[in-house]
Structures are given as structure tokens and as C-alpha cells.
Amino acid sequence: MEILSPPLGDAGRLSDEYANNHMTEPYEIPEYESRVRRMMADGYGTPFYPIRTLEEARQHDDGVAILQGDWGGQIYAVIPARLIRCSGDTLQKLLMDLDTAAWSCNEHEGAAIYYERKPAGTGVTGGMGGGASTGELWVHPEFSRIAAQIGRVIAGEQESIHMT
Predict the structure, then answer these.
(1) pLDDT band at residue 152, thresholds of 50, 70 and 90?
(2) Fewer CB within 10 A of the end CB, N or C, for the chain?
């Protein structure tokens, strides 16, 4: 795990929640949590509900899978867990295909899938405009032309996307 410095809230001060829970010591962020969203939530004192697995996400009406690249610099897709019918390997391949299209220079180093509780109508913190939990499949505008293919992949109806 990576050791990170404390995040800052409004006006460059530590949030009360962070200060009360972490004081000024570095802290560890578990691998299953998005570092960007954890630090933002701690810094601003906003709710953050990471989930360890897809199976656990499916147990919640607001459980989502967040496919991201560039270490959180771009959110590729936000997918309600209830819609995911493909295998874990297929979901991982989808992530790699999207990452290759968007950030081939990173060689997949910053690509990850995170599971979180995100009610419909809430945003997903990330670069390039972040993302959104809509209750349905949300894809970054860069991938709007292949959104239907992405939907078929997560539904288990298609093995992979075809970039044209």
C-alpha cells in the first residue's frame, strides 16, 4: 500500500473529519479504494463508500463499478453492478481496451476497476470531467460512439469492443 500525506480541505486546512480520524499522520489507503476519491472525501468531509468486490456491490441498490484510467485522471464508465452479466475477465478486458484507446502511453499502469456505493444522481470524482452515477450505464463522452457496444459487453452479449 502507498503511504500518502493528509489531504487538505477548504482554504488549505484539514477537514474536521480527517483531523479527528487521522490527525496529521500519513495513512494507508487499501488497494480496493480509489486513492483520488478517498483523499477528496477525507479532505472535504464528504461521504465515500468503497466496496471490495463486484459480488458485494450487487448486494446494494446503489452499487456500481467504476472503470478508470490515468490513476483517476479519467473515468471511462460507471456501471450499476446489477447490469454486469459478463465475467470478471471480460470486464477487465473492457477496461484494458478503453485504457488503450484513451491512455496507451500509460501501458495500463493507471487503469483500475473500483466498486463503490453511488446513488443515481451523484457524481464520480475524477479528471477530465469525472463521471456520473445515473442508475444506468454512463460512459465518458470520448466513448459515446461505442456506448452501445460497451453495454453489450457488460450484458454478456459481446466479448469485446471494436474501436473503429
Answers:
(1) very high
(2) C
